């Protein structure tokens, strides 16, 4: 059974709970997370603070995906696996199918790291390791491109944690770049886009991730790296929060206008 979040407002529920008939027309968003226990992130906090109805789905923990037509939009977050693991991870295959259904039903979609890579795969693009086997972990600068428009108007230093990146899907607009992984964001439309970086990671989220990283068999950070990253998390907290607040406000605005009948 999907977990019911007890630390969130009454506007947020597990998707397995029935929606009252008088609430079915209200905008509702689905947050797809690939691990549990860290709903202190910026996206979850923004939904709560702005009174936006949101449900959570944890496919890597066994949740089944709901009917996407019950939602206005979906945020798919990062994870510790590869977007290419659909041959060994059944939930990756199911999420690829779910994202394809979201696109067919004209849902709004915001992919973050793994979520952006899965969206890119659905749209026919490759997800591959860096040519020099470089991992990008820590706070790094991403820059606007000439096509960024209002999405990213100035450089942003933000958390990264990945070893693979996406190619640009056909027809996508390249909206953010980086030195190590040049493809940092793309837009398929105003309300369908993906980012390689982690704007949802605030200091509280990073602290949880650091604790989990200590028990990993490989790629464990040093204490010095954790301390440096936490300092950066506080240093850049306000600028990242301002940027993400603007993105989410625009993404959820007039939320029913783009839904297919």
Short description:
The protein has 261 residues and is of the alpha/beta class. The protein has 6 helices and 12 strands.
What is the third-level CATH name, the topology?
A: Rossmann fold
Note the main sheet.
10 strands, mixed
* CATH class category: Alpha Beta
Number of strands: 12
Question: Rg to the nearest angstrom?
Answer: 17 Å
Q: Provide mean pLDDT, rounded.
A: 90
Task: Return the CATH architecture.
Answer: 3-Layer(aba) Sandwich
The H-level CATH homologous superfamily, spelled out, is Class I glutamine amidotransferase (GATase) domain
Beta fraction: 15-25%
Counting structural domains, the number is 1
Helix fraction by DSSP (H/I, runs of at least 4): 25-40%
Number of helices: 6
Structural class: alpha/beta
Taking the alpha carbons of the first and last residues, their distance comes to: 30 Å
Order of helices and strands: EEHEEHEHEEEEEEEHHH
Unreliable parts: 1-23, 257-261
Shape: globular
Strand order of the largest sheet: 1-3-2-4-5-12-11-10-7-8
Description:
Helices cover 28% and strands 22% of the residues. By secondary structure, the protein is of the alpha/beta class. It is built from six helices and twelve strands. It has helices at 42-49, 90-104, 114-122, 203-213, 223-235, 237-252, and strands at residues 12-14, 28-32, 53-57, 73-76, 108-112, 127-129, 136-144, 156-162, 164-166, 173-177, 185-189, 192-195. The chain has a single domain (12-252), classed as 3-Layer(aba) Sandwich (Rossmann fold). The chain has a ten-stranded mixed sheet with strand order 1-3-2-4-5-12-11-10-7-8, with helices on both faces. The protein has a two-stranded antiparallel ribbon with strand order 6-9. Mean pLDDT is 90; it is low at 1-23 and 257-261. The radius of gyration is 17 Å and the shape is globular.
